[in-house]
């Protein structure tokens, strides 16, 4: 730990875990509203372009704009921060059990890539493969100073966001048809010239945010060890700056009537706003944290089963929304109602499952594969 951390109030390992689980639980539920759009609408344009589809009534617009302002990429950014933290925590714990924590970590990332590849075969929006690709780099540099990790992390996110300007030039001069990324019925994203940029941006953003997460872990920020005043300032400045940038991005789209001429131009401030927004949310969550809260206990359970909940969201989305969308034209309000049902379901089953089992099913399988042996699963009934 840095000198900054050593001056902070000490916390127990249990407090640190529940703090991280709470943040992770909120993040894993928070990514659902945007992912659900890709299952409920046949074109990716339903995700990126609020005007494109699903906005039949005023409340549809409220949901669409609110999602852009408060959720799109923000919750994924928070989840990515926590994944970077998880890489380091696993390495630290593995170091106390084996002489080769690096090799064990790399093997674990390889298994994650396999899981992500299977998931990607079902749904193109998978993020686990990007995490698996980025994680070895995090492992390589995680012992660098927090300032260096922060600078590199921010630089990667900024680079990914600014790259949209070059792609926008290509779209406007006809070099890169924007396809269904923005226009319903256009060239499918998986067949589009934009696909390489789409995935490159995802990896740059994931890696950058993971490095920022490691920096914050090294500084003791994500473990709730700083004074409350620190988190108040982080929440205030993070949300203030983040919302300003996000509002600029949304305003670009609204003023130009969601034209493809500025589709990726608006992406730039939206992308830049993800870092301060994620940090603002982090500050709010730490200030809100109360282990006696029944709701927070459920959110912590959802965080402990993050991979299971993430994968099950896809299964539920494809088996219900995608099937339903083939029969009726869904609106954003309908999809939001479905999201509320899934949230309720996952907040119910996560604590129910963990009362009976030590890990979520996906987490347990990953753990068994990591250690190449069957791990304890069911809790003792004694």
Total number of domains: 1
**Could you state the order of secondary-structure elements as H and E?**
HHHHHHHHHHHHHHHHH
Shape: globular
Note the main sheet: none
Low-pLDDT parts are 1-16
Extended strand count: 0
The averaged pLDDT comes out at 92
Strand content: under 5%
Task: Give Rg in angstroms.
Answer: 21 Å
Helix/strand class = mainly alpha
Helix % is: over 70%
Note the gap between the termini: 39 Å
**Count of separate DSSP helical elements:** 17
Descriptive report:
With 382 residues, the chain is mainly α. It has one domain. Helix 3 packs across helix 16, helix 7 crosses helix 17 and helix 9 packs antiparallel against helix 10. It starts with a helix and ends in an 11-residue tail after the last helix. 46% of the residues are buried.
Tag the structure with descriptive keywords.
71% helix, mainly alpha, 382 residues
């Amino acid at each position: 730990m840095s000198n900054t951390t050593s001056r902070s109030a000490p916390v127990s390992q249990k407090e640190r875990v529940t703090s991280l689980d709470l943040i992770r639980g909120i993040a894993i539920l928070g990514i659902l509203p945007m992912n659900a759009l890709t299952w409920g609408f046949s074109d990716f344009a339903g995700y990126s372009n609020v005007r494109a589809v699903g906005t039949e009534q005023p409340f549809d617009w409220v949901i669409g704009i609110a999602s852009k302002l408060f959720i799109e990429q923000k919750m994924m950014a928070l989840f990515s921060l926590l994944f970077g933290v998880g890489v380091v925590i696993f390495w630290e714990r593995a170091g106390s059990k084996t002489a080769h924590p690096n090799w064990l970590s790399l093997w674990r990332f390889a298994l994650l890539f396999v899981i992500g590849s299977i998931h990607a075969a079902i749904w193109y929006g998978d993020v686990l493969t990007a995490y698996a690709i980025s994680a070895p780099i995090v492992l390589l540099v995680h012992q660098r100073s927090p300032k260096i990790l922060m600078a590199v992390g921010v630089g990667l996110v900024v680079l990914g966001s600014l790259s949209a300007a070059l792609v926008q030039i290509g779209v406007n001069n006809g070099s890169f048809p924007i396809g269904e990324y923005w226009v319903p019925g256009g060239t499918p994203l998986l067949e589009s010239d934009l696909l390489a940029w789409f995935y490159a941006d995802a990896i740059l953003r994931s890696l950058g945010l993971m490095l920022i997460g490691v920096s914050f872990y090294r500084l003791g920020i994500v473990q709730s060890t700083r004074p409350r005043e620190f988190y108040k300032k982080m929440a205030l400045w993070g949300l203030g700056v983040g919302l300003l940038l996000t509002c600029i991005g949304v305003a670009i789209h609204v003023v130009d009537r969601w034209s493809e001429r500025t589709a990726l131009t608006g992406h730039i401030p939206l992308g830049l706003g993800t870092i301060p927004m994620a940090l603002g949310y982090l500050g709010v969550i730490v200030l809100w944290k109360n282990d006696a809260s029944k709701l927070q206990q459920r959110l912590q359970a959802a965080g402990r089963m993050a991979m299971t909940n993430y994968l099950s969201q896809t299964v539920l989305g494809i088996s219900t929304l995608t099937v339903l969308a083939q029969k009726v034209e869904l609106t954003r309000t309908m999809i939001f109602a479905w999201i509320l049902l899934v949230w309720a379901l996952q907040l119910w089953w996560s604590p129910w499952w963990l009362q009976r089992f030590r890990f979520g099913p996906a987490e347990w399988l990953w753990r068994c594969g990591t250690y190449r042996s069957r791990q304890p699963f069911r809790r003792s009934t004694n």
